[in-house]
Structure formats: structure tokens, C-alpha cells
Amino acid sequence: MRPSDRLFQIIQILRRSRRPLTAEAIAGELETSKRTVYRDISALVGQRVPIRGEAGLGYVLDGGFDLPPLMLSAEEMEAAVLGARWVESRADPALAKAAGDLIGKLAAIVPEHLRDLAFDPASRMAPAWEQAPDLIDLARVRKWIHEGRKIGLSYKDEQGRESQRIIWPVVVGYYDCVRHLIAWCELRKDFRSFRTDRIVGAEFLEMRYPERPGVLRARWQRTLKEA
User: Fold this and answer.
1) Helix (H) or strand (E) holding 219
2) 173 has which bridge partners?
3) Which of 17, 56, 76, 173 could form an SS bridge with 72, CB 3.0 to 4.6 Å?
4) Could you read off the pLDDT of 125-183 as tens digits, one per residue?
């Protein structure tokens, strides 16, 4: 790997990590030595890239630093387009439209040699199966998730029994032919998964639930690991 490519990769590694990374972890990903990583990070700091060393923890890239959007590799372009195509064919209408717009924007900003990858990539996916209809506005659900607000549901289970719930929405899960709303259910005092094609009524409440959305998601993720 050329030194300039390695410097770019170090920035990419730090940018995608939410936690400090040690020189050993960076060296392992780049298949190089810790000494080389130390030297490269020193060079980046000398070029005014805002990298900080956290004593005993590792390196972090400060906020506010970004790279030009044209600096995409062919593999990164393929990955972005493949993901966007999946969302375009399987997500709710608002998110599907956004995915299509994203592909168009990528094609407009990348160099000429990458442009064809936006519309004729080498990677493809299986056609989407017939999908069950959403009986709730998922664009609004995502907004309520970000804002940490409650939703009142009328929900039918697989036996057709209807129940009333107050939920704290956590995430929307997108599958090939059905979507699920994962939430903390006040009735069950636990996390539950609600198929969006079985939600027969929804009231978007102004009440915020007591936890921050990120904290609630972390708690849900812990329950998955413990299951």
C-alpha cells in the first residue's frame, strides 16, 4: 500500500469508529506495524488533521473534519449503490425515494471513471418478494424514534386478537417481505416486535418517553446479546 493510501485509510478507520482505537488495532487492519502507524499519525497531525491521542485508550478523530465527497474507491461506490438499491426495493416509499435520490447524487459527484457504477454496478441482489403493506406511516415513525416520543397502537396478533398498546419506538426492521417496529411496550413491560402490516391503528403522541433514544436502543441491544 502506498504511504498516501495508508494515510487516507487511517482517517477512514478513525472516522467510522465511535471509540478510540489503539495503534495496534489500526496496524492490524492495515496489516502493517505499530511503528508505521505511529509515524503515519504523526504525519497526519503535522498536516493539521485533528487526531487526538487518548492516554491508555487510543486515537480519536475530532468532529468537524471531513474528506471531499469525490474520494470514493470503486469498492466503496459499489457498496453504497448496492445498499441504496436494497433500500430502494424493500423500504417504505419515503426511504425508497431517498435511496433513489442518493444514487443520483452519487453519480453527479463522483469522477467519470466511477459514474457507470452508479447505474450498472457489478453487484446485484435478488428481486424483492411481494411485500406486506404497511398500516402505519413509517416516515413519521422514524421521526418519532429520533424525537423519543410515544406511539399508541391498535395491534392484531397472528390469531387476529386486537390489543391496545403504548410503545416507545426503538428501530424499524426492514426484511424482504415484511417490516417490524421494535419498541418498548408499556403493557408488557418489555421489548416487543410489531409487524407493520398488523397495526390497525396508530396515534402519534406528543409525550416523550423518559429515556433518551440512544440509551433505549443500547438497552434493547443488550437484551439481544443476553437472549
Assistant:
1) helix 213-226
2) 180
3) 76
4) 888 788 888 999 999 999 999 999 999 999 999 999 999 999 999 999 998 889 999 99
- Residue whose grid cell is 441482489: 125
CA distance 180 to 165: 15
Rounded distance between C-alpha atoms, residue 16 and residue 24, angstroms: 17
At a CB cut-off of 8 Å and minimum separation 6, what does 13 contact? 21, 26, 29, 30
Give the number of other Cβ atoms within 10 Å of residue 224's Cβ: 9
Reading the block at residue 106, the C-alpha cell is 452519487
Name residues whose C-beta falls within 8 Å of residue 182's C-beta, 6 or more positions apart in sequence. 169, 170, 171, 172, 173, 191, 192, 193, 194, 220
Among the listed residues 207, 227, 126, 209, the one whose alpha carbon sits nearest the alpha carbon of residue 170: 209
Written as one string, the DSSP assignment of 79-100 is: HHHHHHHHHHHHS-HHHHHHHH
